[in-house]
């Protein structure tokens, strides 16, 4: 996104409970704080939208005198936060960030475990014959 979105300051991927997954931010911005704040903002906004419109929230845009903060829902378990300066064109930001949020959601959605696979107490998956199942490769 950094190469395709002019005036992008940075981006953060976080879990829906505010844990940092990945970040590309300037050294002056602390990524774990942004992850926590973005998760809180998205959670509050989800509650607000559910109360007023009874539907799902896709994104929250904050416009300030210094730039924009856009928090995109990335499935039920994550979010993408994009920070821009004041000269960014939000249409261009959305054009690049919305598909990125969908891709993040796809990557972080747990794979369906076949019925013959069970989880051991230590968190390892085993097939019915006692071997480890093949893990699909992400291309």
Describe it for me?
By secondary structure, the protein is an alpha+beta fold. The chain contains two helices and seven strands; from the N terminus they run E-E-H-E-E-E-H-E-E. The strands form two sheets. A five-stranded antiparallel beta sheet has the order 2-1-5-4-3, with helices on both faces. A two-stranded antiparallel sheet has the order 6-7. The relative contact order is 0.16.
How far apart are the first and last residues' alpha carbons, in Å? 19 Å
Please summarize the sheet with the most strands: 5 strands, antiparallel
Radius of gyration, whole Å? 18 Å
Name the average pLDDT: 83
| Order of neighbouring strands in the sheet with most strands | 2-1-5-4-3
Number of helices: 2
% residues in beta strands: 25-35%
Number of strands: 7
The outline comes out as globular
Query: Percentage of helical residues?
Result: 25-40%
Order of helices and strands: EEHEEEHEE
Give the structural class. Answer: alpha+beta
Contiguous low-pLDDT stretches (5 residues minimum) are: 117-127, 135-139
Give a concise summary.
The chain has about 140 residues and is an alpha+beta fold. It is built from 2 helices and 7 strands; from the N terminus they run E-E-H-E-E-E-H-E-E. About 30% of the residues lie in helices and about 25% in strands.
């Amino acid at each position: 996104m950094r190469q395709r979105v002019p005036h992008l300051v940075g981006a953060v991927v976080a879990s829906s409970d505010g844990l940092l997954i990945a970040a590309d931010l300037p050294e002056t911005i602390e990524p774990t704080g942004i992850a926590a704040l973005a998760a809180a903002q998205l959670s509050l906004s989800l509650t607000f939208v559910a109360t007023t419109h009874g539907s799902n929230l896709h994104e929250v845009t904050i416009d300030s005198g210094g730039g924009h903060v856009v928090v995109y829902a990335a499935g039920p378990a994550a979010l993408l936060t994009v920070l821009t300066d004041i000269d960014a064109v939000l249409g261009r930001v959305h054009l690049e960030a919305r598909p990125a949020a969908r891709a993040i959601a796809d990557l972080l959605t747990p794979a369906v475990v076949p019925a013959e696979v069970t989880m051991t107490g230590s968190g390892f998956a085993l097939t019915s014959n006692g071997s480890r199942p093949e893990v699909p490769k992400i291309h």
